[in-house]
Structures are given as C-alpha cells and as structure tokens.
Design a protein that fits this description.
Blueprint lengths: L1 H6 L2 H13 L2 E2 H14 L9 H12 L4 E7 L6 E7 L4 H6 L4 H16 L5 E2 H7 L10 H13 L3 E4 L2 E4 L1 H14 L5 E2 L6 E2 L2 E3 L6 E3 H9 L19
Length: 237
C-alpha cells in the first residue's frame, strides 16, 4: 500500500481536482492540464503518457469506487474525460443536486431521447411531460428553466430546440442506460461505447456513431455494413 501511495504525486492530485470541478474535460484540455500539472510539480512529463498518468490515478481511486473514464463526443468524435462514481446510479448521483420532480423530468426526457430514432427529443415533447409528472406537476416556464439547468450542468445538450444526452451524461451513465434500456440501448459497432445518436443497419440492426460512420466509410470504396456486409442505406454524414 505504501508503494501505491508513493506513486500518487501532487501533479496527479491537482489533475484529479480540476477534472472533478469541471465535470467533464475535452481531450486537448486534459493534455494541456497534464503538462501543466507535471511542470508545476516538477515531475517527469511525456506528451504521449496521459493514459498512463490517468491509470495511476485510477489505481488510487479504485478503493473509493471512482474512476476517470474516457468517452467520445457523439457530435464530433473528440475524446473527453470525466470522473465517474461507480458506486452510484444516475438517480443517487443527481439526487443531491435536484428535486424529485426535476429528477422525474430528467428521467422522462432520457426515455424520449433513448427511445427516439435519432437520439434527440424536441423541447415541445419534453415540455408536454411537465404537467404529467407524478411527483409534482410543473408549469412549462418552470420546466424550461429546469432544462436550461440540465444543459448548464452538462447532463443534456441542446441544438435548435432539440435535446440529447451530453457526453458527460453518456460517460457517467453508460452502465445505468445499458441495464435500464436493455431492449433499445446499443453499443457502437466500431468504438464499442454506448451510441445514442447513431445510424443503424437496416439489415442486421447494428448501430454506429455518426463520427465512427464517417471515419469507417472514408476508407471503403462503397459503404457496406461492417457486420453483415449489406449495402449501408443511410446517408454518410
């Protein structure tokens, strides 16, 4: 144990603190932070050793049931890092920050997003749920405000009045979503992470993130499904 404890430097601690206060950190920012922490603490820095640096932190977080996880943005495929509490589900994780009715609205929004064809739910559909909540009915104005907070807290992302799950939410709640939406939640056939916004093969039903679709078919002469080899009928983004 003493040997393990010796491996955790101030640089590691500083990196972890910033990651926790950010909620989620984009890959290039995490690389800059890694360099900054090592240089400030005057410890060895190598630009290609971020994953090893994180592995060391994770070995110390293990007894606390926590972990720094890497995930990809469904929008542009860029890497992001977030600290995940493995001992908590989405409900208990968020319970300290939101009221019961806000949590219920979030869960219903999540249902709409995950059960949708394209991984989005319109603000109209979400706001229509506000006065059907079992915990406490919400006025539309109030629900709009709550949605705004979910976006600010990086649980949801919004584009032109359409909502989807934020990268932070996907990284932190992947297990929760996979076990609670077993019939509909799917992993991307290319990167094997949970895919909310995805294209689906009409023949065999596998799904692929849009950035993964883009990358995979760039190298193919004609778009064929990586699993069943049938023609890929969706438009390549």
């Amino acid at each position: 144990n003493t040997v393990m404890a010796a491996q955790m430097t101030n640089a590691h601690r500083r990196f972890l603190q910033v990651l926790m206060s950010n909620g989620i950190t984009e890959g290039s920012e995490a690389r800059k932070l890694h360099q900054h922490c090592c240089e400030t603490d005057k410890v060895y820095y190598a630009h290609d050793k971020l994953d090893d640096f994180i592995t060391t932190i994770n070995s110390h977080l293990q007894p606390l049931f926590m972990q720094i996880r890497k995930g990809l943005s469904e929008d542009d495929g860029r890497a992001h890092y977030a600290v995940v509490n493995l001992a908590e589900t989405e409900v208990t994780k968020m319970a300290s920050d939101y009221t019961e009715s806000e949590l219920e609205l979030f869960r219903k929004t999540m249902d709409l997003i995950i059960l949708s064809e394209n991984g989005f739910a319109s603000s109209t559909d979400i706001l229509n749920l506000a006065d059907q909540l079992k915990t406490k009915k919400m006025k539309k104005k109030e629900a709009e405000q709550v949605l705004k907070v979910f976006v600010e807290d990086k649980w949801l992302s919004e584009k032109n009045g359409e909502y989807t799950l934020h990268t932070r939410c996907i990284i932190e709640m992947e297990q929760y979503i996979l076990s609670n939406y077993q019939d509909v939640a799917r992993k991307c056939n290319i990167c094997h992470s949970l895919a909310i916004q995805s294209q689906v093969c009409e023949s065999c039903g596998i799904g692929m993130h849009l950035p993964c679709v883009r990358k995979y078919f760039r190298a193919q002469t004609e778009p064929r499904c990586p699993k069943c080899n049938e023609f890929w009928s969706c438009d390549i983004p």
